Amino acid sequence: DIIPPTLLRLLPNFYPQLSRIIFVTDLVRDVISPSTTRSNAIPAELKVALMLRFLATGKMQQCSADDLGPSQPTISRVVMQTIMALTARHIVMRFIDFPTTPRVIQQKQTQFMQIAGFPRVVGAIDGTHIKIIAPSINEDVYVNRKRYHSINTQVVFDAEYNILDVVPKWPGSTHDARIFTESGLNKLFETGLVPPGCHLLGDKGYPLRRWLLTPFSRTVTEAQINYNRAHRSTRSVVERGIGQWKRRFHILHSEIRYSPEKVCRIIMVLLPVPSPPECDSVRMYTVSKINQRKYMNNKRKNGNLYIPVRVIYDLYADISARLLTRILYHYLFTVRW
User: Fold this and answer.
1) What residue spans define the domains of the chain?
2) Which pLDDT value is given to residue 205?
3) Does the predicted TM-score (pTM) go above 0.70?
4) Long-range pairs, 21-24, Cβ under 8 A, ≥24
5) Which residues contact 188 (CB under 8 A, 6 or more apart)?
């Protein structure tokens, strides 16, 4: 918990990013921490930073030994180790969980109602294709209708662009309707775990159910026209949400050069993680200008250093990945006490 003096002048700009890395690292620290400190073993924090840089750039070469110290094969290995750890079921379920309690459902419905007056909507559903290289096995089933290889990913957004459910495992040729029918979300509604009267909004590619509403294919009456207009405006949340999500990560701008199984894991780790708990329960770092001189004069001084409550921990936005990983590398490898 010691902040090296060489980093103090950088903290005003970078402490939110460092705090995000610490928060994510604490989720999987027991899994990814090296078992030894010999031979410059890569610390858990740097593994998370390397993973973030890879996701931000989409290129493992930009995390190479010229910049960060570890070799490219080592970086590739630790990046996938971190991704596998962060996509463990018990971690994913902490942050992506479709609402089933009346209080949360009512809140979601109120937020959707404010968009276009469409009542009782808890989520908007759609599928999106993540481009991949041609797999060596069953290559043809990954070719989608636009003639490129992909993973067809089902995603559900709420009115505030939070992801409520995601299914990133089906080949590109799989229809959206089948993905939904086979999903756990369908079972939630079919078994009554989601209270009656709650609706999802989907496009015409989804089957019409009591709780999955699709637009009219032909509008005859004024009521049908108004329904389609409200449906389109409300469901546009998921289209904008997917667009914003893809624009944030360069790795999604071109084909991901991994096996389909690993791509599914990468998709899961790209999903936004919400804010951590209150700052007094998570190790966060900052330093006031008043205390900077004290830290410069006393390298080993410890303290309770918190960042303001309600800081938005958007893990991947506004991260200068190249500079941040350089800072962490200097912190974890070259600083000597």
Assistant:
1) 5-89+273-334, 98-257
2) 93
3) yes
4) 21/45, 21/48, 21/49, 21/52, 21/324, 21/328, 22/282, 22/283, 22/284, 22/285, 23/276, 23/282, 23/284, 23/313, 24/48, 24/86, 24/273, 24/315
5) 98, 100, 194
